[in-house]
């Protein structure tokens, strides 16, 4: 899917943000090149869907405040490149020590330059990628949008699908009980780390969904049988 961008990538406060279903003119050609690159490299293939959701979610959290859409788009589509099979190590000891953020930040400048991305914005993209983890404190509004959106992706129904799909194919998830522990930790710790009021509002329904799922799982079987 080709994401869309207005002529001016910084969304103005005075102009209401268009609905995401509305066509926006003149998409930058680097965007389609970047999305195609991630589509080809996303392994397992379900890793590809996260970027599309995350971009839409990050944009929706801005609430009319201006931000650089080029920076958000590029950071969202690149931030998880280092967790894809073919980019991350396969040997378990190396994988345990792997810094996927450092990997992406080392590769991104060359990738973006080859795709025609504005060179002056590359440092801002790298900053957003470095700050996207919950443990980080973003130094830009773009970084805050992406970080909060990424936290929201770890709550709710989609988070359940993303986490359970890792069972049996990720060394951290050998059994369903491992997925349940991660989901429980997420719902207990992540909502309190959201920085934006819009993110906290969006988290309410997702948190309720995840809590309901965890309660239902616990009622159906003890965790040591999962």
What do you see in this structure?
Helices cover 55% and strands 0% of the residues. It has 226 residues and is mainly alpha-helical. It folds into two domains: 1-137, no CATH class; 154-226. Helix 1 packs parallel to helix 3, helix 8 packs antiparallel against helix 9 (176-189) and helix 9 packs antiparallel against helix 10.
Protein structure class: mainly alpha
Instruction: Sum up the overall morphology in one term.
Output: globular
Describe the main β-sheet briefly: none
Number of domains: 2
Radius of gyration: 18 Å
Average per-residue pLDDT, rounded, comes to 82
| SSE series | HHHHHHHHHH
Q: Could you tell me the number of beta strands?
A: 0
- Uncertain residue segments: 1-26
Number of helices: 10
Ends distance = 37 Å
Strand content bin: under 5%
Give a short overview.
The chain has about 230 residues and is mainly α. It has helices at about 30-40, 50-60, 70-80, 90-95, 100-115, 120-130, 140-150, 155-165, 175-190, 195-220. Helix content is about 55%, strand content about 0%.
Write the layout of secondary structure elements.
Blueprint: H1 29-41, H2 49-61, H3 69-78, H4 92-96, H5 100-115, H6 122-130, H7 141-152, H8 157-164, H9 176-189, H10 197-220
Helix pairs in contact: 1-3, 2-3, 2-7, 3-6, 3-7, 5-6, 8-9, 9-10
């Amino acid at each position: 899917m080709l994401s869309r961008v207005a002529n001016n990538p910084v969304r103005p406060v005075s102009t209401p943000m268009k609905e995401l279903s509305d066509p926006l003119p003149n998409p930058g050609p680097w965007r389609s090149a970047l999305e195609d690159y991630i589509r080809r490299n996303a392994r397992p293939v379900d890793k590809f869907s996260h970027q599309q959701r995350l971009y839409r979610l990050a944009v929706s959290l801005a609430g009319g405040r201006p931000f650089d859409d080029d920076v958000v788009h590029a950071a969202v589509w690149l931030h998880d490149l280092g967790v894809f099979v073919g980019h991350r190590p396969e040997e378990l000891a190396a994988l345990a020590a792997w810094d996927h953020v450092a990997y992406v930040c080392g590769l991104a400048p060359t990738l973006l330059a080859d795709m025609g991305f504005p060179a002056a914005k590359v440092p801002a993209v790298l900053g957003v990628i470095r700050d996207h983890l919950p443990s980080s404190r973003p130094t830009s509004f773009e970084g805050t949008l992406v970080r909060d959106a990424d936290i929201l992706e770890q709550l709710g129904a989609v988070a359940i699908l993303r986490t359970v799909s890792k069972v049996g194919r990720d060394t951290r998830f050998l059994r369903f009980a491992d997925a349940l522990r991660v989901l429980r930790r997420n719902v207990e710790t992540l909502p309190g780390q959201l920085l934006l009021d819009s993110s906290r509002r969006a988290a309410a329904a997702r948190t309720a969904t995840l809590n309901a799922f965890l309660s239902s799982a616990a009622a159906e079987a003890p965790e040591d049988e999962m």
